[in-house]
Design brief:
Blueprint lengths: L45 E6 L2 E6 L2 H10 L9 E4 L5 E3 L16 E3 L8 H4 E2 L5 H7 L8 E5 L5 E6 L5 E9 L2 E4 L4 E2 L2 H8 L33 E8 L5 H8 L3 E9 L5 H16 L3 E4 L7 E3 L1 E4 L18 E8 L6 H13 E10 L16 H16 L3 E7 L14 E5 L3 H13 L6 E5 L3 E4 L4 E3 L2 H8 L17 E7 L5 H10 L3 E4 H11 L1 H11 L4 E2 L2 E2 L1 H8 L3 H24 L5 E5 L14 E6 L2 H12 L3 H9 L4 H6 L3 E4 L4 H17 L4 H10 L8 E6 L6 E8 L5 E6 L4
Parallel strand pairs: 6-7, 12-13, 12-16, 13-14, 17-18, 17-20, 18-19, 20-21, 24-28, 24-29, 25-28, 29-30
Antiparallel strand pairs: 1-2, 3-5, 3-16, 4-15, 7-8, 8-9, 9-10, 10-11, 22-23, 26-27, 31-32, 32-33
Organism: Steinernema hermaphroditum
Keywords: ATP-binding, Nucleotide-binding, SH2 domain
GO molecular function: ATP binding; dephospho-CoA kinase activity
């Protein structure tokens, strides 16, 4: 998310007049709310027109002004129209007019993109709508049209179309439970702010926009006011690449899972593929967008989005397409299937009559990849590739094969005619042809495809890549938390990682964020001194060489066990059950809602089943060796022996809910940790459990429980609704927002 820049407000004149509330002018937005504190004296209404670049005010009588506000509404913006299907999903065949008709007009509703009434849920856009997206949404609107959008820091921004056609961005800030626009007066709610500045007598506190009246909002879900808010699967009909960014920005919030794109003639599908996926990456990178390639596929979609009137939409049209080859081959990792992969796979499908062979790298071929530890298993990647080709290509067979060398099936199959490559893998295609010549096979035509561009400052990638997608996973919730609770009222998170992974630094950073962190390594060292029975068992198992005068020689013992996996397991079986009991004792006495348990051998000891979540930090093996040589003065052989005495990074990650990588700067690692902590709070994973504990003391466990709390920023009660099952588990929770 880019840093927000706001247009400069002027200092609000804090003129007071007693007991007055603004009266709603005809045509203004009526939301309900309070009068500001402080507020300015009202000024006479007027209409402003732009003449030769100058803003001129024409004074009106009250009657004239009232009529003007009713008749001079902004014209509806030419946003994307939508044809909304009935309650049951409909199938779009996408072939001829005889075989691919859309549902009849009697079963569809055409909804305009501007509305005169709305509620708070449709007024405020999410953080995903940035400055560029806001300007796109306001591009074709009139002066005074606006939208509200959330900002990551908790405030909001009001984006407003000015008389000159530019979009102004004004900060809407919360201070002491009051909302303030620019340097204007404060209000008890966002609704009150909008109501106040929609009045013709109230001046906007922003330089260059003093005379603009808030008129029509661009709503969050403009298409769905009369229907459900969003659908799982939608279909977007594209006829113009120039309008595509606006279409995608408008439609993306209305589709939750997958958006199919149909390219309508005369737009050429092959030349448009890369552009469509590029714009999809920019506008809705998290949405699964798929460009349809075949006219015979039947796909159930719940809503069609089209710029044409729904009543005029008779069917989906296709240009005839002649495929050049029977068999096409391509290769890649195909991890975290993204829009770059979709361009390559779609291009291969468009060229193949019979089958596409897709070589998917695995084994030693992926170990040089950045963050390869997070690469999905081959089976999962192969399934995703086959499903995508079947979904968009239908009649083309997909033959997925695992490859552990640079060539795979491309130098074996004599029927192959074409290889699809990206610009960076062109040399690989040429190497394939040399190998085929050596084997007496025909050479392949090389089709070079331009990939979707993207920029990753950390990995220094110049294109959208699987590495970038894997980096975006760091600090996010990869797997849902475990359901079983072990310590009532405390959310237990294990923090683990291999040797020299940066685990201790993350533990220290979590402590600076006011989380309680139990360092099990230090705890174990203390037990060596406080538990003679444990010391006696260590002496019995490992011999007197490692115990002197009743004290464990930790340095000698560590050197012994870290080079031998079997010996390390022996020590773990002795120490970790005692450490676990001590940890549970500390946690039971803790007053913290969240407690982190930092332990290197956490997975080996089987603790993951005792915890609500496991957070793992790792670095590649080469970096671990380097750190051990620099930090511990070990030889490369000694470093490798220590690393191999522990379980692999992949084994830890397979048991983890959240994963970090400390390969880069401290600041980058800390940013990952902050993201994880933010998601922890945002998803209320531990707050819900804490609330349940409190509610158990007040309400019966087999009843619907409603807890109402007064919101200081509003004059009404904000409800916190918690549904508890008979076991006291939280089944559902709804928190009403403070505006």
């Amino acid at each position: 998310m880019e840093e927000e820049h706001y247009d400069i407000p002027w200092e609000y004149k804090k003129t007071r007049y007693p007991g007055q509330r603004p009266h709603s002018a005809a045509g203004s937005i009526s939301l309900g709310g309070d009068s500001p504190s402080p507020t300015s004296a009202p000024r006479s209404g007027g209409v402003f027109q732009l003449h030769n670049g100058d803003l001129t005010e024409h004074r009106l009588s009250k009657t004239h002004a009232s009529r003007q506000s009713l008749t001079a509404r902004p014209r509806p913006a030419p946003h994307v129209e939508t044809s909304i299907l009935g309650s049951k999903p409909s199938t779009y065949f996408g072939s001829s007019r005889d075989n691919g008709l859309l549902p009849s007009s009697s079963h569809r509703h055409r909804i305009r993109t501007t509305h005169t009434s709305f509620d708070r849920d449709s007024l405020i856009h999410s953080e995903s709508v940035d400055r560029a997206a806001a300007e796109n949404l306001l591009r074709d609107t009139e002066c005074g049209c606006f939208l509200l959008r959330k900002r990551p820091e908790g405030n909001m921004a009001l984006s407003l179309k000015s008389a000159q056609g530019v979009v102004l961005h004004i900060k809407l800030e919360e201070r002491d439970n009051r909302w303030i626009l620019g340097e204007g007066p404060s209000f008890s709610s966002v609704r009150s702010v909008i109501r106040y500045y929609s009045h013709s007598s109230h001046t906007l506190p922003i330089r260059g926009a003093e005379h603009i009246q808030l008129r029509s909002p661009v709503l969050v879900n403009r298409f769905t006011t009369e229907h459900n808010m969003s659908v799982d699967v939608g279909l977007l009909v594209v006829r113009s690449l120039a309008r595509l960014p606006t279409q995608l920005t408008s439609v993306a919030p209305l589709v939750k899972k997958r958006l199919y794109v149909h390219v309508e003639p005369p737009l050429d599908l092959d030349s448009s593929l890369g552009k469509i996926y590029l714009e999809a990456t920019k506008a809705c990178g998290k949405l699964d967008v798929r460009v349809l390639l075949d006219s015979k596929a039947k796909r159930p979609v719940q809503r069609v989005f089209s710029e044409q009137d729904a009543e005029q939409e008779e069917g989906l049209q296709w240009l005839p397409h002649q495929k050049a080859y029977d068999a096409v081959v391509l290769g890649g990792t195909f991890d975290q299937l993204h829009n770059g992969h979709k361009v390559l796979l779609s291009s291969a499908v468009r060229k193949a009559n019979k089958y596409v062979t897709c070589g998917i790298t695995d084994g030693v071929m992926i170990q040089k990849k950045k963050l390869f530890e997070l690469i999905q298993p081959y089976e999962l990647r192969a399934k995703a590739v086959k499903e995508f080709i079947r979904d968009v290509g239908v009649d083309v067979e997909c033959r997925a094969e695992a490859i552990t060398d640079p060539f795979g099936p491309s130098i074996v199959d004599p029927d192959l005619q074409c290889i699809v490559v990206s610009e960076e893998t062109r040399s690989g295609g040429e190497a394939v042809n040399r190998k085929r010549e050596e084997r007496g096979l025909s050479t392949l035509d090389i089709e070079v495809i331009t990939l979707v561009e993207g920029k990753d400052e950390v990995l220094e990638e110049s294109k959208l890549s699987s590495s970038t997608r894997r980096r975006e996973l760091l600090g996010t919730l990869l797997r849902e938390p475990r359901e079983q609770r072990n310590v009532e009222g405390v959310y237990l998170i294990g923090l683990t990682g291999g040797i020299a992974s940066g685990k201790s630094n993350i533990g220290k950073f979590l402590a600076t964020l006011n989380y309680e962190v139990i360092d099990c390594d230090k705890l174990a060292h203390g037990l060596y001194e406080s538990r003679p029975d444990l010391v006696a068992k260590i002496e019995e198992v490992f011999g007197k060489l490692f115990v002197k005068d009743g004290t464990v020689d930790r340095t000698r013992l560590s050197a012994h066990v870290f080079g031998n996996r079997e010996e390390l397991d022996k020590l773990s079986n002795l120490v970790w059950p005692v450490v676990k009991s001590e940890v549970l004792r500390i946690v039971a006495a803790s007053q913290s809602k969240v407690v982190f348990v930092e332990a290197a051998a956490l997975i080996e000891a089987g603790w993951q089943n005792t915890l609500d979540e496991v957070w793992t930090v790792f670095v590649p093996k080469d970096e671990m060796i380097k750190r051990l040589k620099d930090r511990n003065g070990l030889s490369e052989e000694q470093a490798i022996a220590r690393i191999e005495s522990q379980i692999s990074n992949q084994s830890r990650i397979a048991e983890s809910n959240v994963v970090f990588c400390s390969l880069w700067t401290y600041e980058e690692t800390q940013a990952q940790v902050k993201l994880a902590c933010g998601e922890l709070k945002k998803q209320s994973r531990m707050e819900v459990e804490s609330e349940i504990s409190t509610l158990k003391e007040i309400f019966a466990m087999d009843a619907l429980t409603v807890s109402e709390t007064h919101n200081p920023s509003s004059d009404r009660v904000a409800g916190v609704l918690v549904l508890l099952d008979k076991k006291g588990k939280c089944a559902h929770k709804v928190v009403e927002p403070p505006f």
